[in-house]
Structures are given as C-alpha cells and as structure tokens.
Amino acid sequence: MLKMIAAATRQGSARPVQVVMLGLSHLNLDRLKAGEPITFPGEHINLPNTDFIIFAGETEASMQHEVQELLKPKSE
After folding, report:
1. pLDDT by residue (tens digit) across 23-54?
2. For a 10 Å CB count at each end of the chain, is N or C smaller?
3. What ranges do the domains of the chain cover?
4. Are 38 and 44 spatial neighbours (Cβ–Cβ below 8 Å)?
5. Do residues 55 and 62 lie in contact, with contact meaning Cβ atoms separated by under 8 Å?
6. How far apart are CA 32 and CA 58, in angstroms?
7. pLDDT tier, 75 (very low <50, low <70, confident <90, very high otherwise)
C-alpha cells in the first residue's frame, strides 16, 4: 500500500486542507475481498493518535452489520 499526506487547497476554494492518499495494490484488493482488513497507525503518515482500518464488503449494509458485530460486548 502506498501512503501519502500532503497540504493542498480545495478545488474551487483557497481554503487549505490536508489530503491523505492511500493507494491499494491488487494484492491489497485481494486481501480485502478475502475479508482481511488492512490496518496501520497514523504515525506512518504523520497523523499521531490515529489508527486506520480499511475494510470491504459486498454492500454498505453488510459492512455495517460486520462493524456492529465487532463492537458488541463479549460475554464471558
């Protein structure tokens, strides 16, 4: 995966913005299709205290369900 951060101005505006670009290789896409999320700490692109989680699913609804299942409290 290619990770980049840049300072820019938003198109049609002089307002400065920070741009984060993530380039996914075909291997990354295969991992996502296999249900393997890609994670990395923001420190890799100078965004401390930020964790990135990239995941994919068949539909937005199926991804929402997966996230809800991950966030459910675990019973002992």
Report:
1. 999 999 999 999 899 999 999 999 999 999 99
2. C
3. 25-76
4. no
5. no
6. 11
7. low
Q: Which amino acid is at 60?
A: E
Residues belonging to the chain: 76
Supply 73's token pair: 């409290």
**Helix, strand, coil share (%) of the chain residues, nearest 5:** 30, 30, 35
- Tell me how far apart the alpha carbons of residues 51 and 60 are, in angstroms, rounded to a whole number: 21
CA distance 53 to 70: 13
